[in-house]
Amino acid sequence: MSKEIKKIGVLTSGGDAPGMNAAIRSVVRTCAYHHIECVGIYRGYQGMIEGDFKEMGPRSVNNIVNKGGTILKSARSKEFMTPEGRKKAYDNLVAAGVNALVIIGGDGSFTGAEVFNEEYGFPVMGIPGTIDNDIFGTSHTLGYDTALNTVVEVIDKIRDTASSHNRLFFVEVMGRDAGHIALNAGIGAGAEEILIPEEDLGLDRLLESLKKSKASGKSSSIVVIAEGDKIGKNVFELKDYVEENLPEYDVRVSVLGHMQRGGAPTCYDRVLASRLGVKAVESILEGKSNFMVGVLQDKIALTPLEQAIKGKSEIDRELLRVSDIMST
Ligand code: ATP
How far is CA 220 from CA 168, 229, 249, 274, in A? Predict the structure, then answer.
């Protein structure tokens, strides 16, 4: 184990995600287990610039494994994008005796970590925390499983009202660039069609599919739409288009929004966060830097930050076929 690492800083950055607290807890307790000090950095990189630090012992993270959000708060910091901002952050870390950082966040946060490492040679390790699951080098990001379960639960409720009134519901879920949430939650909730950024379903096919489903005796339907779906119309434009072309349908729209980020993390996210936190700290102590700790085929795996940032997390195309077959 590296002799130089005496104190590790941990921060959460970018959009918050359920499981971030469980990851903070894991980092803090793994540090304590290895007799290393741990410092919590508030409000991501902005807190690093402002020196908003707090020493964290193993008891400081009691009762947070089950909490959504992040006790360290998160932020987006424009100042960290400037060399002057990063210099302030570096000076604060040195003054506080911090030797390495664990960054819990998305690809933007990892880019910041990489830049910081390049400039100051400061050891950094990333943990993927974002509900979108859009990071290369991990099959699951923290919060994704919880978001899927939240979305499925809500669509189940929407289905109750849709079937009582013979309505067609368009449910918009998060995912500007990635359709993981829409595709998986859509299949899980029994959606008629799923519109995602990776695949252009086409308006004609959507209309055909809805006509077919009506003809086959379905009286209500749910269409799940990712924010950034390829058709390019927003969910309200899509509603107008369908109502113009299929006047027999009474279309309602439900935009799920930020509720998808909240809530207690699922058991899967808590276990994943615990595993990732242990590996992040132990990798730093082994002298590693500039990696993201992820999970691939249920094994914890390190991916160079550069690849995690540049690589594309692909959707499982077989799921498109499964979805098609399920809507028969
Ligand atoms: P989410 O996936 O939820 O958006 P994210 O980590 O991608 O999370 P961003 O807002 O893109 O969120 O990035 C978080 C922070 O990382 C930024 O506010 C900024 O402080 C830092 N950051 C991003 N890109 C850079 C960069 N090129 N140089 C320095 N810092 C950066």
Answer: 5, 22, 9, 41
